[in-house]
Design goal:
With 189 residues, the chain is an alpha/beta fold. The chain is 55% helix and 9% strand.
Length: 189
């Protein structure tokens, strides 16, 4: 269950940040009660995620299960975008990502989190008052806002899969190096 306050921080996740399991897990845990933010994605994102998971070696059954579990855990996260809104979105470098921008506009999101920053030029998102962050920038921002809550989310993630926080952090090093550095510095204090 996530918070549904009108003034909460709202995030749209691109497929590329939902495919790697360690990253997806920490991002989605941030949206669990007590939530740091509200998670959103388009239906097209979920369809693309299923395809990507199969492409990177998951079975069709595993991919379908993962998407289904995400939908069960966050039923209010799916943004049903009017096709006319997708068509009205700016001409971004990868037109197949217009649904991501449309979902963010429709959800009144604050930020799009993606590893493909070049596909979402800031100047094209400014009229919609949208930011675009890499997963590293986003996680670091959340950590600076509430370090103890982020550490708790990492501990919950580690506990759920029978690993240590250190192992979780190690798995995030390539996708979120600045976030990992901040967490490691905190641990060494």
């Amino acid at each position: 269950m996530i918070l549904t306050l009108d003034n909460e921080y709202s995030v749209v996740f691109d497929t590329c940040v939902l495919a790697p399991m360690p990253l997806c897990d920490v991002l989605l845990r941030g949206a669990e009660e007590p939530a740091l933010y509200r998670a959103n994605w388009s239906n097209e994102t979920l369809i693309e995620l299923r395809r990507v998971l199969v492409k990177i070696g998951r079975t069709e059954e595993q991919a379908v299960r993962r998407v289904s579990e995400m939908q069960k855990a966050f039923p209010e996260a799916v943004i049903h975008i009017p096709p006319s809104l997708v068509a009205a979105m700016p001409n971004i470098p990868d037109p197949s990502d217009r649904h991501v921008v449309a979902a963010a506009v429709f959800a009144r999101a604050d930020v799009i989190v993606t590893s493909n920053l070049k596909d979402f030029p800031k100047e094209l998102l400014e009229p919609y008052h949208l930011l675009v962050h890499s997963p590293d920038e986003f996680l670091l921002h959340q950590y600076h806002l509430n370090p103890w809550m982020m550490l708790e989310k990492l501990d919950n993630q580690a506990s759920a899969i029978g690993q240590s926080r250190t192992k979780i952090i190690e798995r995030l090093k390539t996708v979120a190096p600045l976030f990992v550095k901040a967490v490691l510095e905190q641990q060494s204090m």
